[in-house]
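In response to a reviewer's request, we include the raw inputs and outputs for one of the modeled complexes. The four entities were modeled together in a single run.
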Amino acid sequence: MGRKKIDLKTIECPKERSSKYSKRKKGLLKKAEEMAVLCDSDIILLVFSPTSKPNLFYPHYRPLSRILEKLSNMSEYEREERRAYTKKTLVKLLKNKNVEIPNENHNHSSGRDEVQLQEDDKVIELGEARELLDDNTSILRNWQDPHRVDDLAKLTIMEDHLVSILSLIKKAQIEQG
Amino acid sequence: MGRKKIDLKTIECPKERSSKYSKRKKGLLKKAEEMAVLCDSDIILLVFSPTSKPNLFYPHYRPLSRILEKLSNMSEYEREERRAYTKKTLVKLLKNKNVEIPNENHNHSSGRDEVQLQEDDKVIELGEARELLDDNTSILRNWQDPHRVDDLAKLTIMEDHLVSILSLIKKAQIEQG
DNA sequence: ACAACTATGTATAAGAC
DNA sequence: TGTCTTATACATAGTTG
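The model returned the following structure tokens for the whole complex.
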């Protein structure tokens, strides 16, 4: 696509190379966005050039959290484990201090989610924290919309989540070589 | 690019949509590979349609493991240290005080953040902690505006997050075949 | 580096198999 | 879905500012 056909090999001249990089990066992103719209598909595009900083692209109207949700939904076992972990974390948090967990913008009709969680002497109402702690889905949402994070409890759990994922990665990397 | 110009909106007919999806997926991958070669850049491309399995693409001669390696090797030590410090700070904050952390809106007004936390022989200033929290919550923003990244700590956390995302992707790929 | 321009190579829409 | 064809829309190489 241009005045001339070019060979498919690395452009030697660094100046020219990074110029082409910008142009093509832009083009690639456009294509990706077109495809996301036309075909109703999720796309994550990560690009690094040797000279410029990394860029992660994804369509705005398709939050990264939603894409990750899909990915993390794949293993039922993982989800169960995750849920157990977040509940445990919640219990710990509330035991140590009177941390308030606001229920965000969501209407909680008090008939629903009356489930209670008992551990030691503390009773925790799950309904309160459900939106926040139910599974990693909501945690990922918080990463995506950081402005919604308005207290320490959330941040702590997010951090824990990050840490726990990292340990999984290390394991996976060892297994995979 | 075709007989007709088409509107940039989701194709209604599911059959046609998935047909276009295949075509464009192929085209997008080709572009990505071209760019990887021409511009000597690393690219990771994750695509899924609602109907088909997720596909993770990356050039063969640039193995994902190498890209991950690049990311993890770059600042392994700083990442570990950073993570430990952040977590420790958060935990201490929760344990010792029931303090509200002002979030997002940085009002550096009066004698800001007089609260201090004692741990071992170290004094942790709340202001410092808040910076950490802000760092955490701006991860995704930073990926979109890499020029904003002005210190190693931020980059470190960004990397953690990226690596965790990639891990999920990798895992999904394996599970789905 | 980014924007604009033009000529030309490419991707792809529509259609048939 | 995959592949082929053809006509057309689009992306981009080369270049200048």
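As requested, we also summarize the result in words. Residues 1-6, 18-19, 22, 31 of chain B lie near DNA strand D (CB under 10 Å from a C1'). Residues 14-38 of chain B form the longest helix (25 residues).
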